[in-house]
Each structure stands twice: as structure tokens, then as C-alpha cells.
Specification:
alpha+beta; Ribosomal Protein S5, domain 2; 5-stranded mixed β-sheet; elongated
Length: 128
């Protein structure tokens, strides 16, 4: 198997990944998964597509993560991994799609409008 690459996005986070056969090592920005995401919940989110297909120990994944916060980054990485697994084996698409791992969450932060404290919040109204 040659190297497969994929891209995942969420909010302002972008995950570019390179998957090749190996022992299940995930390296993010030259750091180990456990170092980059100390939270076990975020590690679980990242590994969801791999555990769903029982291939967690089969591939080495090299990740270039940029932008966003830790939640957005972990979800962007999950999408990228799911897309790469479909590229490797198209039969897996149905299983990953049913779990929602192939859906790009398109929600973005709404821009702040002029004359308002936030995007939709208005200043407190005072009658007197």
C-alpha cells in the first residue's frame, strides 16, 4: 500500500494527514497523540473511525494540524482519518457514513456586526 493523504476541516481547524501501513502510531505536528491531546476524550474522538473498523493497529498516521482550538482540531482530524480510510477501502464508506464520521460540520463562527457587542447580542435597552 502506498501513502494515502486526506484533508479534514472543522471551524477554523485544518488537518492534513498521511496514512501508511504500520503499527498504529499517530504523530501530530511531530508530537505523539498522547502528548498533543492529553485529554482521553479528544484521543477517543480522533480514534473513533479506526476503532469502528478495527484497524487501529494497522496504519501509521502523520498529521499536520493547523488553526482552531483543541475540539475543532480533534474533529477535523477525525474527518480526515475517515476520508483516508474510505480512500484505502471504499467498502468501509457505509459503516463510517452511518456513524456520521464523513459529514463535514459546516458550522462556522458568525461575524460580529457593527454597533453590537457580539454577532447577535444587542446592548441592554434602557427605558429611562
Amino acid at each position: 500500500m502506498e501513502m494515502v493523504n486526506a484533508l479534514g476541516r472543522r471551524k477554523s481547524a485544518v488537518a492534513r494527514i498521511f496514512v501508511k501501513e504500520g503499527t498504529g502510531k499517530i504523530t501530530i505536528n511531530k508530537k505523539d497523540l498522547q502528548v498533543y491531546f492529553p485529554s482521553s476524550i479528544l484521543q477517543f474522538i480522533v480514534k473513533q473511525p479506526l476503532t469502528k473498523l478495527d484497524v487501529a493497529e494497522k496504519y501509521d498516521i502523520k498529521v499536520n494540524l493547523d488553526g482552531g482550538g483543541f475540539t475543532g482540531q480533534s474533529q477535523a482530524l477525525r474527518l480526515a482519518i475517515a476520508r483516508a480510510l474510505v480512500k484505502i477501502n471504499p467498502e468501509d464508506k457505509k459503516a463510517l457514513r452511518s456513524e456520521g464520521f464523513l459529514t463535514r460540520d459546516a458550522r462556522e463562527v458568525e461575524r460580529k456586526k457593527p454597533g453590537r457587542p457580539k454577532a447577535r447580542r444587542r446592548f441592554q435597552f434602557s427605558k429611562r
